[in-house]
# Entry
Amino acid sequence: MSIHPLLARARRDGNPVLENDRAVFVWEGKAPVLLLDDFHGWEEHPVPLERAAPNLWTISLDLKPDTYLEYAFLDPASGQRLPDPLNPRTIWNEFDAYNHYFYMPRGRPTELAVPVKGMGRGAVTRHRVPTQDQAAGSKRTVHLYRPPADGPVPLLVVYDGTDYLRRGRLNFIADTLIASRRVSPFAMALVQNGGAARNLEYSCSDATLAFLQEGVLPLARKELDLLPPGGGRYGILGASLGGLMALYTGMRMPGIFGRVLSQSGAFFLPDFEFVVADLVRHAPGTGIHVWMDAGRYEWLLDGNRKMARLLRKRGYALTYREFSGGHNYTCWRNDIPHGLEALFA
# Structure
């Protein structure tokens, strides 16, 4: 019995089958499965595969040639995820499961996140900072990055800092950019999120700002050789709700954080917008420089476009990018070098 050409290619090259700018997902079985992915909002809009031949089901997506995408298959009867036997590449989704992933033909991981032999390496140290009731728990982990450079440098504070180290490989990216002189040296304070309290702490919380002011910044000044915080020299970085909180931090503390890097910021909900939108609309201009990015295939894209229009209308210095991907640390890791080059050149 002959094998369907699509199935033969999937067995040989892996799932999905890539045809120019199209990705064809293949499933072999008696019944169809549902596709979950960033393109369709995951569990919000699961999409059924269609019958292509006996015991063969497919669905196609037209994607940019440099796309990175994560997906999963779902059993419509049980509601359980099913592993894709034709794609062994998996990655933890940071919530509750592993996703399968793939790159389109022109997509690839950033080479800047891979240490180069003989290149100067920054030092990363781990610290426990008392929260003083300004954040969840009695102490919070903060990692400090000391760049391979002499003399005082500006500071970049990073929300979800442990994730940016572990999944974003941000220290290695900084090493490479500094060594290649694509950015001026900078130090980092990478602040662990509050776990179950993350949503509260990153939803435009002034208590979080107080924790930065009274806990994180004193630690950084004590342990690192920093330029003074005045003049908006320091930067603030975050993704998703952390991206919202990064912009809010810049709006509320522009004299310290004059450089804002927001990745896939969660600025708006369907029937609600966070107070940062009103700050942009009505507060006097702060002089901060904002760098934003968002994925073409994520549910927060429209909100990021809306915020970019609002910032431009109000005259803020803004650099806005869209990458070919969804809402995940792989995409943020691959795109963040552009933000660091834009604000720390």
